[in-house]
Amino acid sequence: MERIQTWLDEAETQRRDCARPLVTLSYAQSLDGCITLLPGQPLVLSGAESLIITHQLRAAHQAILVGIGTILADDPRLNVRLAKGRSPQPVVLDSYLHFPEKARLLSNPQPPWIATTRHASAKRRAALEAAGARLLEIPEDRHNRVRLPALLERLTGLGINSLMVEGGAQVITSFLAERLVDLIVLTIAPRFLSGLHAPEAKLAPLNNHPMTTTSSAAETRVVFPRLKTWQAERVGEDLLIRGIPDWETLSPDPPSQNLKESN
What rounded mean pLDDT belongs to the chain? Predict the structure, then answer.
């Protein structure tokens, strides 16, 4: 746990914006960058040793966030079981309240906070509140989804100073696209999947967002950051990479070096 805290301390000293929680993005992928075979299909990629680190990370954060797709596919508990420490507060992105009333999160000692928008139905709100969930109505973005900076501001007001983001693919992409990540902890499993990638390279247009570049009216690509400070280590059968994203040297253009020079 001490090294986990060291990672968080390093990220805290280098992040640009202290007006929101420190955000750690943590997920597992295959060698070819996939997090699962098909959307909505759960798949465990991390080995036993890597899962322990994941739970240590959970214990080091005050809250943990996933999208509604992860809830529907995995029905996760999002608590700490493989390490010592307190379980974080679960937060779920669910713009239209598709959250199931029988989800295991509702039986947690800490019932989930569900971040939704004004477009969610009153009937679903009442049902989920009756089941124990706390609903956070957040302003929507131009796609009628929860606006992430507004959500982080709300979480800060609720006393959350550190947030662990676990997925799924759209959530991972959105946090990177909004430059809201301070620390990345990536587990790479030694296998190929040829499945669903995360981050996703394409998003709906983001109103000339500085993290995107548009090649046509129908396609907008995210410009992802490099890691300016990073380390890699073998954990069991997996490779664990952790680092701090470099938001200062983003470029929407691919390297001009012609690959044939290396042939």
Answer: 87
